[in-house]
Amino acid sequence: MIHTTPARFAILVFSALVLLWTALLALPIASETGEMTPISDAFFTAVSAICVTGLATVDMATHWSVFGDVVVLLGIQIGGVGVLTLASLLGLTVTRRLGLRQRLMVASDTNPNRTAKGASERQAVGLGDIGGLLTAVVLSLLVIEATLTALILPRLLTDGLGFWNALWKSFYFAASAFTNTGFVPLDDGLTEHLGDYYLLSVLALGVFLGSIGFPVIFALYRTLRSSSIRRNHIGLHAKLTLTATLAFFILGWLLIGSLEWNNPLTLGSEPLGRTLFDAGYMSVMTRSGGLGTIDPSEMNGSTRLVMNMLMFVGGGSASTAGGIKVTTLAVLFIAAYAEARGYKDMQAFGRRIPNEVLRVAVSVLIWGATIVLVATTAIMHLAGTTLDETLFEVISAFGTCGLSTGLSEALPDSGKYILAATMWAGRVGTVTLAAAVAATSRSRMFRLPEERPIVG
């Protein structure tokens, strides 16, 4: 299964980790009170940690003991790296060599559709670059989180925390930001740091770096190391990811700022500089960060709708962010532009995009929308909640974002399980699910007659 159907192996290991983390978090030693955590809350927290979502049904700063916090922190690190990538890193540590099968396994983790479609076309990360990609994963995880910890530590020390307590919470913050999880280790959350431009900027930087994805970080690192002649030869995937991420950040910044400008409960009572900063910060958090400073329940309905769309898109492919991914939507827009201009091929940055990529993008969009629709309908029926609050919570779960109106804590156990399943589907990814199902399909030796239906 590892070598023939890595998508199924990833789902199996991912699910097994969730069950293991549920058992660990349900232990009495994992709670601060020494009592056993209810299975529904332990399961929800385990899924939220492994899926790097950030939604919670308990107070993450006070409910868990040191043991529980360590379990949660390990979960978000594993979920951020990826199951197959982590398995390859462990195998590389034991065997001290990276064989073809391990390279294919890592390649399927960065692009689950790759093994099903073949590798004849030019890939964003070639098999020869897998070793460098694994190195980039380890180095970026260590270097970026260590740097974020060092930047956050002085700020928490000024709050009066002891050195070791401040160091632990700084590392917790760094891991939560870079993996785009959104758990906050402070008792009052980020309430005491509203308007703290320094700390919030560091957290936003960590979320941005985690949301662009390890292949993009690897491409940027490789480009910086290359000669000046080849310095502009950055791959199409990296260009699309960075361009789309910047475009969605600016769009979210403008829309959130303009829609909440006169809302006295959110940005309306703030000075101009802080209003602009908070709007930009919340736009970054919709990439899948979840470390929000504004309560979404106090926002206008129009603003929550905009944030729904931003969270549904999420971050970059093969990143710690969720959603259908910015490259997916970019390909759909490129296809629409090509159709409007009458181009036969999709083109971007001097490259032609195969039609197979468009089929995958359409599939991801449809399956993602279907998952959100089914989960929203089920929770509304079981919990009797409204469409507005339920849709926001479900999209936040699917996009592994973690922004919440507070609905997660109020849901019955059945609603918690549905929301946990939505987080699981959002993190595993629709492409991985489709690849796991398609592994049993047989190739046909014939083609049916062609006939064109009326579309549009």
From TrEMBL:
Keyword Transmembrane helix annotated: yes
Record's keyword terms, sorted: Cell membrane, Ion transport, Membrane, Transmembrane, Transmembrane helix, Transport
Membrane-spanning parts: 42-58, 70-94, 130-154, 166-186, 198-224, 236-256, 309-336, 357-383, 417-439
GO biological process, one term: metal ion transport
Entry membrane topology: Multi-pass membrane protein
Localization of this protein: Cell membrane
One GO cellular component term noted in the UniProt record for this chain: plasma membrane
Molecular-function annotations in GO: monoatomic cation transmembrane transporter activity
UniProt name for this protein: TrkH family potassium uptake protein
